[in-house]
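User: Fold this, then the next.

Assistant: Folding the first:
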Amino acid sequence: MPFQPNRELLGEPGEAFLRDILDRIVRSEGRKRALKPADAALRQHTIKVLLANLAVAALNRRNPRKFVALSLNSNDYANTGLSFTAVQLAFNQLQTLGLAIGRKGVAKPDGVNEQRGMRSRLRAKRAMRELMEVHGLRPEGIRNPPRNLIELKGNAPSAGPEPADVQASRVMIERINGLLANSDLQLADYAWERIRARTKLFEDLSDEERRHRQYLGDMTAKRLFRVFTRQWHLGGRLYGGWWIGVPKSERALITIDGEPTVELDYAQLHPTMLFATVGLQLDYDPYEFDGFSRELGKETFMRLLNRERHRGGRYIRRAGAARMPEGIEPSDYVARYKRHLAPVRHLLGEGMGLRLQRQDSDLALAVLDALAQQGIVALPIHDSFIVKKTHEHALRLTMTNTFTSLFGYESIVK
């Protein structure tokens, strides 16, 4: 887990935990002369930030043994408001006190030490986790850094300044984040146990899966932000919530303020939006036809939707994860599938995926904002939303009305 220089412990539990650790460090250090007030304040602030990072890692429900990756290079602390000397002190003293375990990084790997790069690692040991428990330190007692609400990845020179509608979405995201910050969001312990048992290692995930699961287990992660890709009309989906990476099979066990929840999603969202693009209402199953499996149709749709023309997007020569029926070549199946989607076949293989993501992100924000103005907390997972069961009717009504308002056609909410 990367070290964040603006994490912070909050409230009396955080202050008590900090005082306890500082007292132990002072006794272990055995200084004969007191620090100057300014130096003592800087040291305290630095150690407070470091402990906040260690606490976030230790409280992670998916993996409480996460290391915090931090630099032991003084240049990396310039203009951060942190003291490199205090970082070094805490790195060493926390290990001496038996509160943490650390591994120093090296500039170049050798045959003995396989740790690459300058980043060192530190994580809380059981003794520190027990102190956190004694002082009642919980995720809500840790302030996460206020990440940028809008991010443009792989910025192309032609992207230009932030459009007015993107700027306006900042107000909506802040309103939504305000509700989330004041909500108690939990997932049952036995669900976390199952997730820990079967979740893939991060190295095995695709970039999109990695982004989804980036905050999985970090219960302090409740602040949403939008991510666009290269251009302002591409992407724009919401990330940042720990629930986004929770497997669908476990999401029914999420509670909001202690109350059970329900999840509703837009069925066949991208096909419906694609038909709306050409002025038509989708009124048949876009995935299943001629006896072929729905799974195969859905996979083929997504592959054609996201492929671009300059990469041979109109053609699929190899089968994907879904099994192709015996005796059917992928090219033959794709040709028949395109006939099934004749009204929009000219849009397949044209890289429409990111364009539709921009539209579904606008849709999600509109739904969330309409609910927020009613005081209803909703957890977005792109095309689905989780609310308290008592708010199911309000969510369904908001989803159907918002879709019709933006696209002029009916949607299926299930």
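Now the next one, as you asked:
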Amino acid sequence: MSFNAGDNPYIFKGFSLDWYGKLAGDETILQGLGNTLIVAVGTCLVSTVVGTLLAVGLARHTRSKVIEAIATMPAILPELMLAIGLLIFYTAIDFTLGLTSILLAHLTFGIPLVAVVVRVRLASMDTSLEEASTDLGASPLQTFFRITLPGLAPGIAAGALLAFTFSLDEFVLAFFSAGPTDPTLPIVIYSMVRFGVTPDINALATLLLTVSVVAVLAVQRMTRITESLK
């Protein structure tokens, strides 16, 4: 229906790309898209690095179930409860709401999410490779970058994809953490659909779906290449 020539979102009256052109000229949507990409890319990068290190730390350097539960708890908490808790925290410390607060909110979920995915991959790795590397004189840092990290690549890619796609279309955390002048794309969409679904919203949803599908296919392709190189 995003390719509908008419303005009725339920009756198809011919093929047209007019609604995509309308999206390209909508400053509100472009602002929301820009904010969303900033937050999503930032969440993906930080969550991937910190989440991977957290997973290695939990698997290799601690056996405390309490620490592991605390570290991964935000990934299983209800979003609404987490969002309200963050809003109370921001208010208590008088933190200005904006893109930074949204990014921090997404990181509280993204980091544990990546850690859980990478941890699963880490559990399936053969530890004898790391032991052999150490026996041959490699330092812990060399072993991590030459043995552990390449083996974790599929899990890291999957975690990064989840963190990015979660941040891209996440609404609840963003709604409670956003300032009045920095709406993300899901918030913009919410403000639009309150007055009814229109073809331009269908076009926007189609673009978001396309990005998600392309990202999944890209990660699958990258994972196959990584596996074939081993």
